[in-house]
Design brief:
two-stranded parallel sheet; 3 helices; mainly alpha
Amino acid sequence: MKVICDTNVIIHYYNGNLDTEQDFKTIGLGNILMPSIAAMELFRGWRTKNNSPE
């Protein structure tokens, strides 16, 4: 079974949310799909975060 994950789910995973990590392990990383718009949102957010003055 393939599962499509939106941006917020991917962010939860990368932020170390234990429930999300367990869900990903149960589903299997090879079965996690991310829409191209979610990938763009993540890239844009990462780029903005890394280019902002601190």
